[in-house]
Amino acid sequence: MHTVIKGTKTINEYKKKKEMMEMRATECFRKHQVACASWQDGSPIKAWYDGEGLFCVEYESGRWWQYNDKNEVRERTVNQVITSDITYKKRHGR
């Protein structure tokens, strides 16, 4: 998995942050999979922290989500319209 890591000062610090981000991406992925009836987005391929400090994971499908501190998916908006599958399903009883 590709990780975007900024602000580390040593190789050891970089390696620790990379490992932590990979583990967190895997945890977010597993929780997201369980919450969806039919997961079709594949495995995580990229992880990063956005400008707001939220953890983001992109999947093989090209779709990505933001996760909060509890690794719960957070609604994200693109042009203030798109929401995550989990939120949509919860709101529409699917």
Number of helices: 2
Strand tally, please? 5
Main sheet specs: 5 strands, mixed
β-sheet strand percentage: 15-25%
Report the average pLDDT across residues. 81
Distance between the termini: 31 Å
Helix percent band: 25-40%
Inertia-based shape = elongated
Strands of the biggest beta sheet: in what spatial order? 1-2-3-4-5
User: SSE order, as H and E?
Assistant: EHEEEEH
* Domain module count: 1
Q: Give the low-pLDDT segments.
A: 78-94
Radius of gyration: 14 Å
Structure class: alpha+beta
Keywords:
disordered C terminus, 5-stranded mixed beta sheet, 94 residues, alpha+beta
Describe it for me?
The chain has one domain (2-91). Helices cover 34% and strands 20% of the residues. It is built from two helices and five strands; from the N terminus they run βαββββα. A five-stranded mixed beta sheet has the order 1-2-3-4-5, covered by helices on one side.
